[in-house]
């Protein structure tokens, strides 16, 4: 059984992996959350890059908790590390689609180009896979 603590820790570790991959892939701009903050703080997204990153980290950790709570509510199980990684992969895809379809287009009014969609999709899938692996490994109870 996965615990809230495993979801929190998995969210932290998956967020670190996701962020490092974004850097490796060449994303040197502020995260989309910086644009979100700038709409309320009335400024340039670059001015809110660190705050946007912190906000993204917080809700990525929360997404780890949603994962460990939501999977059993759907009648699914974190049986083995393989099934947990598969569930994480699906979760990463759901986050990717939700992020592109709702968050970027509806909330932020951004029409992502192909490069942005590729990076966004890749890092969210990696987030889900790492989260699933951490939760499924059972090393954090």
From TrEMBL:
**The organism's place on the tree of life at top rank:** Archaea
Q: Does the keyword Transmembrane apply?
A: yes
Q: Which UniProt keywords apply?
A: Membrane, Transmembrane, Transmembrane helix
Membrane-traversing stretches? 7-26, 48-73, 85-104, 116-140
Q: What is this protein called?
A: Uncharacterized protein
Q: Which organism is it from?
A: Natrinema hispanicum
Organismal lineage: Archaea, Methanobacteriati, Methanobacteriota, Stenosarchaea group, Halobacteria
């Amino acid at each position: 059984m996965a615990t809230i603590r495993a979801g929190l820790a998995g969210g932290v570790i998956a967020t670190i992996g996701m962020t490092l991959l974004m850097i490796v892939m060449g994303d040197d701009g502020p995260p989309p959350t910086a644009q979100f903050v700038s709409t309320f703080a009335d400024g340039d997204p670059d001015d809110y890059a660190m705050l946007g990153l912190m906000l993204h980290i917080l809700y990525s950790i929360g997404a780890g908790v949603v994962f460990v709570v939501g999977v059993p509510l759907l009648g699914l199980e974190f049986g083995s590390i393989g099934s947990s990684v598969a569930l994480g992969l699906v979760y990463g895809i759901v986050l990717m689609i939700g992020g592109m379809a709702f968050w970027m287009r509806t909330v932020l009014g951004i029409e992502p180009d192909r490069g942005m969609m590729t990076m966004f999709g890749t890092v969210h899938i990696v987030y889900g896979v790492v989260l699933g692996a951490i939760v499924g490994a059972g090393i954090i109870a």
